[in-house]
Fold this sequence. Notes:
The chain is about 30% helix and about 15% strand. By secondary structure, it is of the alpha/beta class.
Amino acid sequence: MPLIPARRGFNLTELVSGSRPARFFESDFEWMAEWGFDFARLPLSYWYWTKPAGDWLAIEPAQFAPVDEAIRWGRRYGVHVNLCLHRIPGYCINEGPGEPFQLFSGPTDGRKKALEAAVHHWGYIAERYKEHPSSELSFDLLNEPPRMKDRSQYVEVIRALVAAIREKDSDRVIYVDGADLGQTPLPEVVDLDVVQSTRGYLPKSVSHHTAAWVPKDEFETFGPLTWPLIDDFGRLWNRDLLHDELIQKWKRISDAGVSIHVGEWGCHNAAPHWIALAWMSDLLALWNEAGWGWALWNLRGSFGVVDSGRADVRYAPFRGHQLDRSMLDLLRENLSDSTRRSTM
């Protein structure tokens, strides 16, 4: 099993939509290193380097320049880079224009074509970056697969993508998002020696408070927000319930030697700041106890520590930006001694 360090950091989301042009920022890597973080997850859209309305197999190599640059910055600043296909041929968790064929739904022939395209893209990425060691670069196959009663289809996709990568690069460390939007462990793929990636978005009533893009039936309550929280079913959401929902159910595969990493988590800026920090503190304590790393969504933006647009935060000026120092301090307090570095 790939026993990975408990790396901690942020999602950098510049290429998540696939809109051109876009690029990452060296300053993000510089800040992460300065603050003591050592992990950058890059959620990518394959639209950035191809045109799905035309030939979705036609990759434009020059369009990988921003990714190449980010990997170089990761090496320069000692930040591990994790490439994730947030939009993979045939699937994206976000609503938007349709894919030519669907990876997880529709006719069998269409699903097969989508999988062939996904294999093609991961094969290209694996070949392009095979000279970079896994200590610096890892791959995350696809972001948050849909909820399914039968996981066998997702397992089939995982096995095909892992095989495509390892045909080009047999030693690459590969992350696999859990089933059901990343929230359910996959004992079915333990034999593949992959890292499994989970999420920290429960309860949604806290993590995504008033977020319009979340289906209403995913919120536990629309009542007054607090932490701890009693939902509409009478459950008390506190650190103990978070442990049961987010830690305990992963114990079986963790005990089998599988490394677990929290690929995304965070609290939308509509939640009161004190509630966000209290909830985050409980999650961080649990992940420290479990020895898991994590990546906050995001560094800059509504879930992040820079330019997050919260109405109830007294921001600190920071190199032309607005810094949520209280949130940053909380995150830094939960870094391991080996990754904590100099203060600002």
